[in-house]
């Protein structure tokens, strides 16, 4: 049996600091395409890489931003992703719903937990999900069959809401990012049915352990080296884990000096990791199937309730930590050296 490897991309616009300062403007296409000197180093780079190595990915596309962006700039992005042969599934950040109100600046200052699904009433979650389903229909995109919540926030009401609106698959859980405190949702790997919805969690693994202290980390392109990814995938295959979910975002493939992404440079480290991963999956397609998450979840062979916690040796984690610190500092220096002169 091949292990399905699902590269999932949260495709979303940015508030751009508007809730903290109402004079700031949310960011649309640049948060996704991430153009640098006329070249897309975000979504464009990703689509090129996936095409070159015959990888099918799952793009969780955010829809609640329509409350702000009336010209609907996400519509052509969703079509371009679909036309490139990838899955387009639903992603929601509840905070965008504040823009449905004229007094949104006051609401943003007064309300806490603007973007949480955890603790949200069932009917509110149902409405947010239905907004996404209606948006997909309006865009002329196939009805979503999978969902990922903003910030990987979740609770039982969210899974009940997904069942109520008829979305059968989800990827809402990454224990290293958010944990409800409920044992039923401490899901590290595998696939697990909750309230009639099959949850495919982002893989959570341990990247170091000292004594009884164990550090947990989500499997992401931005935060995991290729050597760690390769080790984890090899261990997943050896343990017959049927499905591994990896998380990334288009904006992680650039570095920027500001929330508007007005001055950017490509992020060579994350780009190299994605290229290495996709090339390795192509070379090892006898053991690994780089496929869409919903396609994988439909296969009965993907049912696995074991919930294994995989680990990566610390001697692979330490070089990654050093590389990221050094490259972040270098990036800030390089951006400062190329900053446009003030008018």
What would you say the CATH architecture is? Alpha-Beta Barrel
Structural class: alpha/beta
What is the gyration radius calculated from CA atoms? Answer: 20 Å
CATH topology: TIM Barrel
Oligomer: single chain
Provide the CATH superfamily.
Glycoside hydrolase/deacetylase
How many helical elements?
10
Helical content, roughly? 25-40%
Instruction: Determine the strand fraction and express it as a percent band.
Output: 15-25%
What average pLDDT do the residues reach? 95
Please provide the ordered H/E string of secondary-structure elements: EHEEHEHEHHEHEEEEEHEEEHEHEH
Number of strands: 16
Poorly predicted runs: none
Q: Into how many domains do the coordinates divide? A: 1
The largest pleated sheet is described as: 9 strands, mixed
Euclidean distance between termini CA atoms: 61 Å
Describe the global form: globular
Describe this structure in a few short sentences.
This protein has 343 residues and is α/β, with parallel strands linked by helices.
């Amino acid at each position: 049996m091949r292990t399905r490897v699902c590269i999932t991309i949260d495709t979303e616009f940015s508030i751009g600091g508007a809730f903290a300062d109402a004079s700031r403007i949310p960011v649309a296409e640049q948060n996704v395409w991430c153009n640098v000197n006329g070249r897309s180093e975000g979504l464009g780079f990703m689509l090129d890489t996936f095409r070159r190595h015959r990888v099918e990915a799952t793009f969780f596309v955010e829809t609640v931003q329509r409350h702000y962006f009336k010209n609907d700039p996400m519509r052509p992005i969703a079509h371009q992703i679909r036309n490139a042969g990838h899955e387009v599934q639903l992603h929601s950040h509840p905070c965008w719903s504040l823009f449905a109100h004229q007094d949104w600046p006051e609401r943003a200052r007064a309300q806490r937990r603007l973007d949480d699904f955890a603790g949200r009433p069932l009917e509110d979650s149902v409405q947010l999900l239905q907004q996404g389903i209606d948006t997909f229909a309006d865009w002329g995109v196939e009805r979503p069959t999978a969902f990922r919540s903003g910030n990987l926030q979740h609770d039982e009401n969210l899974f009940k809401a997904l069942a109520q609106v008829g979305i059968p698959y989800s990827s809402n859980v990454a224990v290293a990012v958010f944990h409800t405190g409920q044992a039923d949702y401490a899901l590290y790997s595998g696939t697990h049915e909750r309230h009639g919805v099959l949850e495919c969690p982002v893989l959570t693994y341990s990247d170091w352990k000292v004594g009884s202290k164990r550090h947990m980390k989500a499997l992401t392109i931005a935060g995991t080296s290729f050597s760690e990814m390769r080790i984890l995938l090899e261990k997943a295959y050896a343990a017959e884990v049927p499905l591994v979910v990896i998380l990334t975002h288009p904006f992680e493939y650039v570095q920027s000096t500001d929330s508007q992404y007005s001055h950017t440079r490509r992020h060579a480290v994350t780009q190299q990791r994605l290229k290495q991963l996709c090339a390795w999956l192509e070379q090892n397609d006898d053991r690994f199937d780089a496929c869409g998450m919903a396609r994988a979840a439909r296969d009965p062979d993907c049912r696995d309730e074991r919930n294994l916690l995989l680990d990566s040796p610390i001697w692979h984690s330490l070089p990654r930590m050093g590389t990221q610190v050094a490259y972040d500092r270098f990036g800030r220096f390089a951006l400062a050296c190329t900053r446009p002169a003030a008018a």
